[in-house]
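Hey Z.,

So I finally got round to the fe (ii) ion thing we talked about over coffee. Here's the setup:
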Amino acid sequence: MKPILPGAPWLIAHRSMLGINQPHKITLNGQYYVIWQNQKGEVFALDNICPHMQAPLSDGWVCRDRDTITCPFHALEFDGKGRLYRGDKTDNQAITQPLELIISNDCIWTYAGFEPRLPIPELHQTVVDEYEFLGVTGEKSIQGEFLSNLMVNYDYNHQNGTHKELFKITSCDVSYFEENGYYTKIKQELKRADNTLGEIIKNPILGIFPKALSNTLEYAFPSTTVFFAKTPIGDIAQTHILYPETENRTKTFILMYAKVKNPMMKFLFKNSVLRAGATVIEQDTGAVESLYPRQKPKIRLPNEEIMFYAEKLYRDW
Ligand code: FES
Ligand SMILES: [Fe+2]
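And the result:
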């Protein structure tokens, strides 16, 4: 496939998603990689295709003493630099490609071998400086091209359909829009109707979400959308991550960060925001996966210029 947005920094995983000495398969822009983390917290990634007879290394196993991955087919062993280990020594030369990684605040980024065109977004640092990491939620591989998934995040009307049941939003006003190249920021005033008890039991966060919400959304194109919201129990910085797996598949997950006012409430708050985040992704996925191929829209809704601004960044890359 022709790579999507080559030279963009992609956040392929958070450290907490990797476990210890467990191989994971990552698909990025049509390339397959295996990634693992050892007990010291070092992270390694290689081309997932075994250079012997093309078995997926991610189905193999990691040796904790040697920091190697063993191919599941004929049990050849490779270290994190892609060098074959045989007998009791490692070859000097790599035989398979390592994937270059940048680890920042437990987030694992890569340019997948392309010349970097944008830095790792500062937005992540501003979140980490102020908020505490709660966990990852809503991890999904969505059947849908990257652009459709990207545009949902800049779409201030889909809450009326896609998230109607969840948030009961009755009005959404975008009061402020700032664009600075690949960074954009908006302020959004939302009004909500009451949720039923059943809905609150399913998603307890709804019980504490105010009726009028002033949210901020900050974007670091193309990987990151942070939704900042305040509730009486705590403030959240819900960080949506996207990367293109293939032409028609997009990976997403949410890194949930929060500031909880009362430590006693932390556990409950954590579980409910993680659950609500997963529901949001579920709903967005359903919307994107059901779309017919994109055509020029014949109807315009308010605030869509922000979404088209993101589309333009994509097309002009
Ligand atoms: S295919 Fe990997 S060891 Fe043979
Ligand atoms: Fe959504």
